Amino acid sequence: DERNAVASNLTRQWQNELFAIIDDGTIYGREIAETLRAAAGQAALKPVFVDTFRPQLDNQIGLIGRLRKAGATHVFAGGDGGDIAIMGRDAGQLDADIIFAGGEALRTAPGEVPYASGTLMIAPPEWADVADSRVLDSFAAQKIMPDGYTLPAYAAVEIAKAATALAETSGRPLADALTAQDFNTAIGPIRFDGKGDLTENLYRVFRFNGANFVPAEAK
After folding, report:
1. pLDDT tens across 90-104, in order?
2. Of the candidates 114, 80, 115, which has an alpha carbon nearest to the alpha carbon of residue 99?
3. Counting CB atoms within 10 angstroms of each CB, which of 36, 89, 135, 137 has the fewest?
4. Those residues with Cβ within 8 angstroms of residue 10's Cβ, 6 or more apart along the chain or in another chain
5. Phi, psi dihedral angles at 183 (to 5 degrees)
6. What is the pTM of this model?
7. d(CA 75, CA 53)
8. Over the range 189-199, which residues count as b (16 or more CB within 10 Å of their CB) and which as e?
9. Cα→Cα distances 98→8, 70, 87, 103, Å
10. Domains in the chain, start-ordered, CATH in brackets?
């Protein structure tokens, strides 16, 4: 899920960085920040700064000052994209060389203040970017917009149909038919382990290039 994806990706990528963890005090923000903090502790990593910030302010200059004083160069913020955009703007105005990161809330346009170039987002891909073109063509013919979780829902139906057919032909329980094999779906191959969990986390790290979020490894 999102929290574990944030934790696993950032503890790996930031193990040699001076990082901070902040949240906006909401359940969402606090839980994702605490998951990252716990994972960092298990990896013997210690943030240089941990705090809760006030959301929906016109500026976060005071927060940026505290982050800079702590020496933070990378900051994960559990909160909305609008707040993270303001942090990035204020850091730039104060010449604080800080990279901000957030969860999939950054998929939502931030408002009047754009995201700073280099801002990181841990989220699933835009499903239409990775989907089977034949499925997209079928949706277009029916005037269906594949937004939100339309394509993952379509893939779930594909998996259910394939697993049911396999269970019927093999005589195996449906739960067994769901595991230890790949299902070719509209959003790519999907595989479940013996516990029913996805074998591959669908979340990725994306970097804002000034116009769009692109895979972080892309140049």
Report:
1. 999 999 999 999 999
2. 115
3. 137
4. 19, 36, 76, 101, 122
5. -110, 120
6. 0.85
7. 12
8. ebebeeeeeee
9. 21, 12, 9, 17
10. 2-124+203-215 (3.40.50.2300), 129-191 (no CATH)
